[in-house]
Automatic annotation (TrEMBL):
Source organism per UniProt: Oikopleura dioica
Single GO molecular function: phosphoacetylglucosamine mutase activity
Biological role stated in the UniProt entry: Catalyzes the conversion of GlcNAc-6-P into GlcNAc-1-P during the synthesis of uridine diphosphate/UDP-GlcNAc, a sugar nucleotide critical to multiple glycosylation pathways including protein N- and O-glycosylation.
One GO term (biological process): UDP-N-acetylglucosamine biosynthetic process
Residue ranges annotated for the Phosphoacetylglucosamine mutase AMG1 domain, each copy included: 194-269, 282-408
SUPFAM superfamilies in UniProt: Phosphoglucomutase, C-terminal domain, Phosphoglucomutase, first 3 domains
PROSITE patterns membership: PGM_PMM
Occurrences of domain Alpha-D-phosphohexomutase alpha/beta/alpha (ranges): 43-78, 91-161
Cofactor: Mg(2+)
Catalytic activity field: N-acetyl-alpha-D-glucosamine 1-phosphate = N-acetyl-D-glucosamine 6-phosphate
All residue ranges annotated as the Alpha-D-phosphohexomutase C-terminal domain in the record: 459-493
Binding site for substrate: 353-355, 469-473, 478
Protein name: Phosphoacetylglucosamine mutase
Active site, UniProt feature: 57 (phosphoserine intermediate)
Amino acid sequence: MSFERAPGTKQVKYGTAGFRGPADDGQMGFIVKRSGITAALRSRKLGKATGLMITASHNPVRDNGVKVTEPLGEMLVPNWEGLATDLTNADDLNAEIAKVIKSEEISSSSEGLVILGRDTRPSSAELSFAATEGIIQAQSRSLNLGVVTTPQLHYLTYKINKGTPVFNLNLDLYYSDFTNAFLEITKNSGNLGSVEVDCANGVGLLAGAQFAKRLESKVNIKLTNAGDGLLNHDCGADFVKTGQRAPVGSEMKEGVRYCSVDGDADRLVYYFLRAGKFFLLDGDRIACLIATYLQKRLGKDSSVNFGVVQTAYANGASTNYLSALGIKTVCTKTGVKHLHHAALDFDIGVYFEANGHGTVLFNDSAIAKLEKEGHSEILALAKLVNQTVGDAFSDMLAVEAVLYLLNWSIEDWAAMYSDYPNRLMKVKIANRADIQVTNAERTCIAPAGLQDKLNSLVATVANGRSFVRASGTEDVVRVYAEANTAENCDKLSIAVANLVFDMADGQGDKPSL
Ligand code: 16G
Ligand code: ZN
């Protein structure tokens, strides 16, 4: 694989998922190398270690991708997304590097440190060499953690910047922190039963095996899709959430809790079988479970300010459930960084996308108030939830812990509310940038007149809700619809999809179910 970019190569853009694309068309090598340069320059600018993760998450195994992490484990800041884009598209790389060094006032004597990680894709190992080449070219060192989950990379990047000496930076730190937190919370419990984890044939199987071993006295963690099949193929959190069905290889039995992680283990969904029927507990449910627990334990008198951050994709029933309990909710644009940012406005910010990516952030004031009010149980939970980014395994342990603390079965959890029937469709149009949205993606402002027509369609069904937005990761427009019945929901989504197709230069066949 060449790590050089041929002049005139198609331009790429650093998006919500970093850079992502096919791993076999000769482009990913230079894209990852230049992301190494970006991560190194960012590190030199801040005088702190940054992270670089090579993964394409839930995408098929032939794809790959790369993301840069800020020192405390957050997503790359917006103006550097622009610099990453410029560095990656530059015909003259050295000139572009010089430009960034000048505009960002990076000292010529500074040296960076980039923490490097990769998933299990066959293309990932070679791409980590590409990254190293870029990191060195940008006058920095790299510390290669090898095969890790995305949240492990974020967590260890955070740890090194919080003072963990470089020689102590290893995965044992990650496993012991989360294992100890779980054991602390469940110290008075007996065995909590079985949970079966679909590892999507990805890196999750390594993390899953560690937790299974370290927690065997408390919970029986059984792993499926643990490397015997193709990555993300008919399995994983995205497959289960999108298809609302069990992954391949799972012979579901009543009375067992099931969950799926995605290809880099930053998303989680739960499910179980009841009377022969498949029942999904997605990111909205996880948020509602944790919020319910917090509200019960904090009680009326606590000064801790907490709330839930969702996107427009959150099922309306979950938002209504939270509002009925008097829990604050906020809606942001799609993409983890937007939710994360909004969650920081609360002492405790619970954020989850419906797809299962999310976490619970506790700020310093929350910790101080919890200490003062004597909430040791919630303080223990704060240690169990990965504070840097959504983490499928940390979230799984948090769900298990909260079910235990509430003395709830998975059935009790499922009974919180009933989802409104909903449907997600894709529409191909000539130029998806023609669709412009505002109000956390719930209102379409271009093409002119589309939103008015959409409103009229929504008004034709009971409990109707629908919105459209251009995907950030695929060349399509996504249409979401929700209504009181599955039939009305189908009727609404097909009508809105056709509206988009007709008003925004639809391509190919007219949308149908
Ligand atoms: C990316 C985002 C995810 C979002 C998805 C939406 C991050 C780390 N990931 O995977 O949060 O749900 O994009 O995809 O921000 P879409 O724009 O194609 O609908
Ligand atoms: Zn992922």
